[in-house]
């Protein structure tokens, strides 16, 4: 005798004078999952706690079908059905397991709240919390770096002279062409702006003073620091981050070496040496660019330009600008190395922390420059 073909699962809701009844019949298996899920969605909201459940006509049942039943009836009703003696023990155990799993793991997705004033305040609060955490980490890493420096400065045998010279070449010498060209062009722009703005007051000659003050106090060191923040901080992060991803830093610790002494100090000291020298070069290039424009537009001869520059610009302006260079260099190098150590283990993490190093370095440089400008103004320097 041929067996009857399997019937697809169905759920029928009937209402009469005796009350509402949900009849579950047929095969609730993976083969009918899409139809069963569609029917369950149609009945969603119609199943209350007082409705009677008739499950005696249930055919085959697997995990996918039990999950749809549990979604339709809820975890508590599903577990109650699992106590029905009319069902085989295997199906009761399956319903109970799925019902327990829904309670344990299917907690539901939290619906995003609508944007509003409270949500804006929450985002501001989280941003401020992240800012203070990042500041605390930066201060801690600065402390670790200074501790490592003090531990090795009195021990010449532990100095990494070869690494130091190599990093000075990479961060300083290789940056000379782009920095000189950039400073020269900015000097030309400042001279053009000064000549245009001061011409209406009949004071075009004071363009020389504008160029001197701008590059000796601010533009020389600021252009250099921003350029190295994008060029060098990112390189430090990528180099150390790649070593972290390949577990080379763990190998260094296993060998009994200090990663800060081996990787951080040579980079920090190299940038502290290179950035003041590059700042001096940027000042010279910017002043030369301004002098070329003054000679071409204002017809100021080089001898007159130099004599006015010497008479009106004091040595204090140069010292005020160059004094900021070591501080900027230290912060750029520390931030670049710190972000490298924060890399997890993927190429995406290397890219994210490299970007973060550049952004943080430029932000810190501009912040410190603004604070220095306020300090110099109060000191009347």
TrEMBL record:
Q: Keyword set for this entry?
A: Cell inner membrane, Cell membrane, Membrane, Transmembrane, Transmembrane helix
Q: How does it sit in the membrane?
A: Multi-pass membrane protein
Where in or outside the cell it occurs: the entry states: Cell inner membrane
Q: Predominant location of this chain?
A: membrane
InterPro entries reported for this sequence: ABC_MlaE_roteobac, Permease_MalE
- Sequence intervals crossing the membrane: 138-155, 175-198, 210-229, 268-298, 318-338, 358-377
Q: Which family does it belong to?
A: Belongs to the MlaE permease family.
Show the PANTHER family listed in the entry: ABC TRANSPORTER PERMEASE (PTHR30188:SF3), ABC TRANSPORTER PERMEASE PROTEIN-RELATED (PTHR30188)
User: What name appears for this protein in its UniProt entry?
Assistant: Phospholipid/cholesterol/gamma-HCH transport system permease protein
